[in-house]
Amino acid sequence: MRGRRWQVGAAVVAAVMAVALVGCSEDGGEGAGGLTVGLLLPSRAVPRWEQSDRPMIEKRVKELCSDCTVVYANAENDAASQRQQMNSMITKGVSALILDVVDPKALRSSVRAADRAGIPVIAYDRLAEGPISGFVSFDGGQVGRLQGEALLKGMGARADDGGVVMVNGDPSSPNAAWYEGGARSVLRDKVRILKSYDTLGWRTENAHDHMSAAISALGTNQIDGVLAANDSIATGVIAALKSARVAPLPPVTGQDADLPAVRRIVVGEQYMTVYKPFRQETDAAAAMAVALARGNDLDVLVTTSVDSPTTKDVPAVLLDSVPVTAETIGQTLVRDGVYTIDQICTPKIRSACARIGLTR
Questions:
Q1: Read out DSSP for 44-96?
Q2: Of 121, 164, 200, 356, which shows the fewest CB atoms inside 10 Å?
């Protein structure tokens, strides 16, 4: 079921704070009795997990409950490792878990174990399977549609029956199919999908191999655009295109607004990325975890519900994303304080920044 989107206003922020802070100011707070939030992230291959999500979640949990503790583990893209990490947290008796799942099917038994132990699980960014208590993510269908729409715009006249290579995400991630489905809904009947690849681990080197294979099979003249599922994948795609001396580069999409990708957009090597305001996602996850750890419900925090393959009507927050091209970096990423102009515009690309009006 699709409901209203998460629009953060003064009333919502006040409600989140009121729910999250209940019990924290009395007798030292529930954290003094051992409230612990477990945070399980999937990898370091995508920069955002360590650079944005982890510190933001840890900070927000402490803001909502000064006596709460966050315990952290990173699975390094290995489902068996994540299962061991999660089972360890269950054994230690954490109060709630925030799980960004590597492989939903592989972790289903651990989610069930958490449920049996009375530990609520918030599925973070990717929809886990099993009896989860809540879900927070960006609308993956919208992300894919934004990528598809931008790619068509970047292709210009070639968008009419042009040739596109799709370099998708890891098939074990439910988000990969979500993104791909959104993109295909836009590209269908407008372009020809010449090749489509799944990228294990969302790894740059795997994306490079896929793009090299596409170039070998198709040549360079047939490739009018590349739908790259995220910025790590775009890194490999663009490196392969440059190694093959493709010039000019076809438009390449991305996602996550990684700083190297933003710089590539400035110099014209990558056409766009999808900016997902991570603070909204991390704030929602932290508030949900703290509320559930205290035994509160999520009614005031959620905006919709979703169905997983195993569980219907999971309380959820689905957030909106923003497309970013060279023309809109200033009014999106810089305005929101994600990066400063000095961070983006290194001396090497300062003249390119000036050309697009990205100056102090």
A1: SSSTHIIIIIHHHHHHHHHHH-TT-EEEEEE-TT-HHHHHHHHHHHHHHT-SE
A2: 200
